[in-house]
Amino acid sequence: MEVLPLERPLLDLSNRIGELRAQARHSHLAGKNEKELAEEIKALEDQFETLAKQIFSNLTPYEITQLSRHPHRPYTLDIVKQLCDDFIELQGDRNFMDDAAIVGGLGTFRGHRVAFVGHQKGRGTKENMKRNFGMPRPEGYRKALRLMSLAERFKLPIITFIDTPGAYPGIDAEERGQSEAIAKNIMVMFKLGVPIISVVVGEGGSGGALAIGVGNRVLMLQYSTYSVISPEGCASILWKDGTQADRAAAALGVTAQNALQLGVIDEIIAEPLGGAHWKPAEAIESLGQALEKHLLELSQMSSEQLKKQRNQKFASMGRVVAREPVSPFRTEEAPNSEWMQSWEQITRIPGFAADAVLP
Length: 359
Fold this sequence. Notes:
The protein is of the alpha/beta class. The chain has 16 helices and 8 strands. Strands 1, 2, 3, 4, 5, 6, 7 and 8 form an 8-stranded mixed sheet that branches. The radius of gyration is 24 Å and the shape is globular.
């Protein structure tokens, strides 16, 4: 199992507990009293829980970013296979090819026929190459659009799982219309008359995430992230130094808690102590309970109500703060009067909203 530096003390304890449990099963060979072993195991389990709470109550945004990328977190197919036992995967965009970085299909979720769509990463080099590290090309988004349009035709709710560093930025993807594919998905999702629930289960990276993220409800797992760019990419642009990723993560506000405070998401789904990769089945069960609750609520709404609620939800994001007109040029930094004269000329343009300019 891949281990993050912050998890190393926990793994050492977990391994020791596993060894003692193995001894307990064969205590007659180990020469130890069963009661003594049980007491030692209980003491280590308490120590594990205390240490885990201490570590995970003080995570930095970049440490949460690392957790969101852990290769043993539940991926879309893991989630779907646990939540429904009749999932049928549908492939291809009926235009160019099948993109394995996005998967989708139909299944029954707790009595509801549902269309599932989600990013899919790989575990190991071979599978990651097949899945393109969870970075879809245009045909992936067009496949997602085909499946969502199919759900609309048959009046099926749509559940999407977001887990991508971002859309693939390669030349071939750009040649086949990457930006158009993402933009069209966003546009069409606003018009669909069926319930849409989107869940960020790992990385929610930029437009590659938003292309399947326009939902009536948007949820996040506790240690997932949602941002316009990766911390490493942001650091490379702002400070020309990718090692400043921890600083960038803090500035970007990538965490679920921050997204909830800003009104970008509707709920945070708690993960097991240590993160979803420690107890994937338990994490998926918690996710299933949240999905069921929101699906029942949305199923009471009409097609027009769903579309209206979805549009209002995203239109209400962000705030405009009215301020006194302030020049963006500080006199101590730009003493040249030509700058100030140019600014004064701009503010005199008819219809210019000076209060929209931030200091």
